[in-house]
Write a structure and sequence with these properties.
- The protein is of the alpha+beta class.
- About 40% of the residues lie in helices and about 20% in strands.
- It has 6 helices and 9 strands.
- The protein has a 3-stranded mixed beta sheet. A two-stranded antiparallel sheet has the order 2-5. A two-stranded antiparallel sheet has the order 3-4.
- Helix 2 runs antiparallel to helix 3 and helix 3 packs across helix 4.
- The chain is extended.
Length: about 160
């Protein structure tokens, strides 16, 4: 079953909202909203901010548990199931393999590149090593045998002193 979430426009950004708008999308440093009375939706938008109600947050966590999506276990053995924030992390991790860190920083709306680097770049060392080994093996498989063995003299003319 698939769902499409289309947020309701919540109203306007509040007076204490701080936005760095020299970037697009803008980076939100602090968000307050002036909600219109009578809003009953669980997902609200006042660009560039999204607001999720506690009800929707709990529903997403309940769906993660029902689907059996385990993301961690505590030292006592209690399991943590996927939550709304885990969806964000999965988004960042998937894109981290496809785009440059500066682009990911923008997508994740991190204020500092160091945050992006800390949480998303270089986190999958085993996969990187595996991919590197595949590239090396493929490269070596495509080099003619006399080059791979270091036999350069067979390909070039030997110059003598005569």
């Amino acid at each position: 079953m698939h769902y499409i979430l289309e947020p309701e426009v919540a109203g306007s950004l509040g007076q204490n909202t701080i936005i760095e708008d020299s970037l697009h999308p803008p980076v939100v440093l602090n968000c307050t909203t002036a909600l219109m009375v009578g809003q009953g939706d669980d997902l609200l938008e006042s660009f560039p901010c999204y607001i999720v109600t506690d009800k929707l947050r709990k529903l997403i966590a309940k769906m993660g548990k029902a689907a059996g999506i385990k993301v961690a276990a505590t030292t006592t053995g209690k399991l943590k199931y996927a939550s709304a924030h885990d969806l964000r992390r999965a988004f960042g991790l998937r894109w981290s393999k496809l785009i440059m860190p500066a682009e990911l920083k923008e997508l994740m709306r991190h204020r500092e590149i160091s945050t992006t680097m800390q949480f998303y770049v270089g986190e999958d060392a085993k996969a990187t090593i595996k991919r590197l080994r595949q590239v090396v093996a493929n490269t070596l498989a495509n080099i003619p045998l006399n080059q791979a063995s270091g036999n350069i003299a067979s390909q070039s003319q030997v110059v003598t002193g005569e």
